[in-house]
Amino acid sequence: MSRITEVLQQCRASGRKALVTYIVNGDPRPEVTLAAMHALVAAGADIIELGVPFSDPMAEGPVIQKGHERALVHHTSLAGCISLVGEFRQTNRETPVVLMGYANPLERMGYGAFGTAASAAGVDGLLTVDLPPEEASKLKQELAQLNLDTIYLIAPTTTEQRIASIVSLASGFVYYVSLKGVTGAGHLDADSVQQKVTEIRRHTALPLLVGFGIKDADSAKAIGACADGVVVGSVLVKAMGEATDQSCEDICQRLTEITASIRSGLDSLS
Amino acid sequence: MNKPIDYNAMPDASGHFGNFGGRFVSETLMHALDELQSIYDDVKNDPSFRAEFDKDLAHYVGRPSPLYFAERLTKKIGGAKIYLKREDLNHTGAHKVNNTIGQALLAKYTGKTRVIAETGAGQHGVASATVAARLGMECVVYMGAEDVKRQSLNVYRMKLLGATVVPVESGSKTLKDAMNEAMRDWVTNVDNTFYIIGTVAGPHPYPQLVRDFQCVIGREARQQCLAQEGTLPNALVACVGGGSNAIGLFHPFLSDDGVDIYGVEAGGLGVETGKHAAPLNDGVPGVLHGNRTYLMEDENGQIIETHSISAGLDYPGVGPEHAWLKDLGRVKYVAINDDEAMQAFRNLTLVEGIMPALETSHAMAYAEKLAQQRPKDEIILVNLSGRGDKDILTVAKIDGIEV
Description:
The complex is a heterodimer.
Chain A: H1 3-14, E1 18-24, H2 30-42, E2 47-51, H3 62-73, H4 78-91, E3 97-101, H5 103-109, H6 111-121, E4 125-128, H7 137-145, E5 149-154, H8 160-169, E6 174-177, H9 190-201, E7 208-211, H10 217-224, E8 229-232, H11 234-242, H12 248-267
Parallel strand pairs in A: 1-2, 1-8, 2-3, 3-4, 4-5, 5-6, 6-7, 7-8
Chain B: E1 16-17, E2 20-24, H1 27-43, H2 47-61, E3 67-69, H3 71-77, E4 81-86, H4 96-110, E5 114-119, H5 123-135, E6 138-144, H6 145-150, H7 152-160, E7 164-168, H8 175-188, E8 193-196, H9 206-214, H10 216-229, E9 235-239, H11 244-250, E10 260-268, H12 279-282, E11 284-288, E12 290-295, H13 320-328, E13 332-337, H14 338-352, H15 358-373, E14 379-384, H16 392-398
Helix pairs in contact in B: 2-4, 3-14, 4-5, 4-9, 5-7, 9-11, 10-11, 14-15
């Protein structure tokens, strides 16, 4: 059983809503990320989603775009993200880490080389925003052999037929994109999320996490009520952007506050 | 002997040209692309759609565009005969309008009320704003902030046509960033918005449908050359940024083995300097903007900044069909530097009284080189893809003149 499946099953069994937190590796400075990952876990994150910076992050809103830009100033690479996970694993063997990024750095490294290195370092899953299932079959093959989960997105525009075919390929969890738009957009509608989540659940028993547009305890609670958990990113990356000149400790403190507040929102549901 | 390649059979059903092309987008856009493909599959062989498209090309764009024998330039170069396919004489001054007319018709079929576009030099933005004005649709054009500066005339033209021009401040502030931003708009407003992509790149079916709309260039040129010279040309030359004017000219000739085909990329300060926009000469296959193609990137797969004097060629990728044709060896892709393009701009302006766009000047510069190497009875057909009025401020700046 993969680490992701194990953690999400435990959450389900104990009635806990899963919290996935996203930060960009190397943002705002490379030495912050490892400490930030540990801080997020301590503050209540169940899964870490580590953003792999890319020069052209097409699905990101302005906040996360800037996070990628700040990280790239330090030449943060996919290989660097993998070795960071290796460092994280030296003291944390429980919390799953999913790499989230775009296809081109992966293409450059090669699927095989990526899979081998990621698996050895203790990466648990991969979400590639611009690699829909139709283009992901080779990668999926490579990763499945290594017990790495391939996470796919489902969007408000995904038809029922596509939902059925996507969930049949997915492992770990299904990530529902709560709105039509980029990350961090401001027009979240809990009722329509609830509707779509019900539709997706008819096709899969996999845990269903919802992301895009969740920014505080209230929105986490509203969305968490109908899902297995939520993914939070822009609000954390925004804090990074506001703290570029602060010490690593101060940045981690700020991330802890945000995460703990969202955690308490989710915990009020159970 | 190998079976001849059926160039019309590409892309395949999943939108690939061999290893290239495809549909690399976030899930939110997949349905819109499926929908677009299904509408396009329905209309592309529908006689009434074709008739409407042909009527607009004839009466609104002003087609067919002439095939002009550049006699004085030919004499000056002293080699093969140089013929120019005059896309610069189209309404709005470039080949871009062939495609926007076609996509606007598709937009009408989809029932969307708003169109968006990305633009580099501004020609595609102007062509999109033009068709939007004609259809009474809202039009938003994304343009890199750097390009907004160097193509201010086209920015004003778009505004006069009622479009909103959004300067894009992210990344390198050029065409690739404009395309990122247009994708972000599309993903947000996918219900009411049609994205008019300006070149033969992007997710399937765009490379296919933009090619099909632009192929009018090659079909006309083929007939005109046969009528005027009694034979097919010996060589074709066109500039390649994304590659829509080039594929439009090349495609109807791909099965004519006797026709040599050259695509000319922007060599910037020189391919050997790394400061250029020539992915087919100096790039590697990768994934950007919805398709797999040759890209300019670093060792970590980050897209790198390109350089060209011409905003329309200043793009780190290229249409996937060109990537495929390169690997097949059917088209030869070469590069022309900024300086050589400028010289060709001046030559054609002074010798023929035709002021080419800086993009087009790259094709002209290579055609001159090629003509010198080829015998006088041969024919080189160049796609004169756009006129240079939009570039006079750039040229004046190089000359140190304030206009």
